[in-house]
Structure formats: C-alpha cells, structure tokens
Amino acid sequence: MLDTQIEIAQKNLALNDSTLNIIKLQFDAGQVTSLAVQQAEAQQLLAAGIVTQLQQNITLEENALSVLTGSFPKQILRKGKLNDMILPDEINTGVPAEMLSLRPDVRIAELELVKANAKTGIAKANMYPSLVITASGGLNTFTASNWFTIPASLFGVVGTGITQPLLQRKQLRTQYQVALVDRDKTVLEFRSTVLQAVAEVSDELVKIEKLKERYAFAEQRVKVVQSGLKNANLLFSSGMANYLEVITAQSNALQSELDLAEVKNAQLNAGVALYRALGGGWN
Asked: What angle do CA 276, 277, 278 make, to 5 degrees?
C-alpha cells in the first residue's frame, strides 16, 4: 500500500510544482498577487511533506520485514503492486461451517469432546451445523439456531451400558455420572468455540462484501476528481479559473487516490483475516 501511496503523492507533487511555476510566471507578469504564489507554495510544501513521510514509513516497514526474516535492514524487492492483487470471487458465495474444523481452537475443542465421549462410551456424531456461512450469517438460520440450542445428548450416541461386577458398580456408576457432567460441559465449550468462529468468519465476509462496494464508489470518485483536475488545469491555463480552484482540485485528487489505496489495502487485510478465521483457507 505504501508504494502505491508514494506513487500517488509523487505524481501530485509534480502537479503542484507545475502549478507553482505557472503562478510564478503569472505573478511576474502582474496577473496575480503574491498571495497566489504563497498559497501555491504552501500546497507544494504540503505535498512534499507527504512524500517524505511515506518514504520514512516505507523504510521502517522494510527494516521490520528484514528483522523478521533474520537479515540486516535493507531494501525489499517488490514482486507486484497493490492494484495487481485481487481476492478470489468464490468467497462471496460463502463457506461451509464444517471448514471451521480447520481452526486450531475449534479442533482442540472437538478433540476434547471426542475424549469426553470416549470416557462415557458415546460415539462421535456430526458435530457441525449443515449450513454455509455468509455475510448475512448463513443460508439456513433456523438450522443454525437449532444447532446452538440442541441438547448435549444429540452430540453423540450412547453406547453400551455398565457391565462391571456388582461390588464395583456403584463406584463405577458415580464415575460415569461425573464423566457425563464433564462431557456436557465440554459440549458447551465446543459449541461456544464454534459460535465464536462462525461470528469471526461472518464478520470478515461482511467486511469483504462491503469493502468491495466501497472500492467501487472510491474508484468512481477518483475518475470524477481526475476529470475535474484536468478541467481545472485547462481552465487555469486559459485564464478562466483561479489558482484556488486548481489547488482545491489537486487536493481532492490526492485525497481520493489515497483513499482508494486505503480501501484496497483493507480488502486484502479482510481476505487475510478470513483465511485466518477459517484456520488456513477456503478451498
């Protein structure tokens, strides 16, 4: 993202330099006042400051990445640009809830339940709701609601009964009842873990869906302000627009392009967060 932002800022700085030179020529010809020159210089210095700040941020990020990879601070070779990175379209259709079993926390909770089942002689059943997680929460809300309210006994099938000698039966039965209580507790923990996982996946799907819409709006805004900037420069060159209109158009163009880069970066971050929320992927 920083590389894209600095490209935008440098392009804007070049525009500001060009505008400042034109205004200085107009000042020398007596067409504008010194105020116009000062305003243009202030805008140019602002643009230069943004470039310097972005250069600093890039160097800091490169240093951090170098340390992370076990090397001395150095320039990082780029293999692509922000706009070249896209999210796969298939994630917009949602993901099966069963994929949550890839998550380490869900897997641990599932194995704890399997262990609790083994202690009570209960066979493993289908422990995940049959639904697809989407940005709206799932295709079958009724099924999901039922899954989170069903009795713990439905998470497995009771096996054979206690067939121990008579003298040990009471002690074994007590141990069995305690194991059942522990097992019900494990079911609740498993259910809670899956519920949290579903919420996290749904959150990221919502972000991806809405950021896609935001990106379309931001992209359209960039086209509009770029057209406005072009017209402002043409009008300024022909004396039909003043310097304030040009400075405003340049400022709007800079901000709109930076905002577009921010939204694109947020899209990619949401994709990474979804990948993590699913425990490592969606394919």
From this structure: 90
DSSP 38-89: HHHHHHHHHHHHHHHHHHHHHHHHHHHHHHHTTS-S-PPPP---GGG----G
Same structural domain, 42 and 116: no
- H-helix or E-strand containing 163? none
Domain identity same for 132 and 45: no
Q: Is residue 262 part of a domain?
A: no
The pLDDT value given to residue 171 = 59
C-alpha 264: how far from chain center: 10
Q: What is the pTM of this model?
A: 0.69
Regarding whether 34 and 12 lie in a shared domain, the answer is: yes
Residue 125 has pLDDT above 60, yes or no: no
Q: How many CB atoms lie within 10 A of CB 84?
A: 7
Distances (CA, A) of 283 to 161, 198, 209, 246, 279: 42, 17, 18, 49, 12
Which residues, 6 or more positions from 57, have their beta carbon under 8 angstroms from its beta carbon?
A: 2
The count of structural domains within the chain is 2
Q: Which of 200, 229, 252 is the last residue of a domain?
A: 200
